[in-house]
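Q: My labmate handed me this sequence with no annotations at all. I'd like to see what the chain might look like in three dimensions before we decide whether it's worth expressing. Could you predict it?
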Amino acid sequence: MSLGSSVTNQVKLFRASRGWSQHELATRAGVSRAEVSAIETGRLVPSVATALALARGFECRLDDLFQSREDADQTPEWAWLPQQERCRFWESEVAGRNLLFPAETAFPWAPPHDGICEYGVIQFRRQVPPSRTLVLACCDPAAGLLAAEYARTTDFRLLIIPRSSGAALDLLADSRAHLAGLHLQGEQRGDGNADAVRSRIGAGFALIHVARWQAGLAISPGNKARTVGSVVRSRLRWVGREPGSGARQCLDELRPGKRPPAHLAANHRAVAEAIRAGWADVGVCVRLVSEEAGLRFLKVRDESYDLCCPRGALADPRVVALLNVLQSESYRGLLAELPGYQPLNTGEVRDVE
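A: Here is what I predict for the chain of 353 residues:
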């Protein structure tokens, strides 16, 4: 029995990505070098036994190595154009399209890239099918914990795209991400995140609760201010965040009518780094990154951090797997140990009507 002509393979790409010769792969899989060569060039359709042996040799799943020709022939699109002539990228299936996500910067939780683009020429080194990658745009500084638990306990991987709440919702609305993380609670009562979703991208979405976290002011250790009010009244150098971010919302509510800071940080950790490096005296971020940077922290409010997705995406196996991770004791235990995080009702789903 063979896999049939409707299946294509990634044997050569997998072998090349590991730097193996055909002989080395043949030895690891227990097949002949001639079989490896014929399979890579398409002259031989492997039997199921041979395909399983190759998958064992690569220590991967069979469906990672062999795909239906219909899926393999789908032309990928850029989620957004690369900014460099040479860049790495990841690939994921989002809303029926295979999208390529350019690597914007290095993050410790980033999975191995799926390929490289050099001067417009795309070279795939794909090791995970696009249908097994879930894309989350968010600003959660602890997103790496979720990605690690997801990879450890499921057959999928989680790609984190660093974005503010507003920018993440924009990617979701354009079907360039499966989920958007947001914390736009504000000072209002009620469900501020649901209100933000309705006003920005409309109804038909669901919110998945992750945690409550503490947002506030990170200030340099030498600053002796004891209250948020005294910091706001003082003449300190502020570092800001872009419009649409939860931190900018908090900052504008603290300083109504005042001109926003001239210098903007890209994320929570960049706020703390600007203060730690002496470029600014104070900025809004979450407690976690303030404590990590050795800064003083003055709490302003508790915020609800949620993940937003189309309601229909709740049936996607990748999202189902994510919900299982969020609701697990192991992940909730990790969150509970982070400064300022409260994993209450983690994994709870509510509709945005």
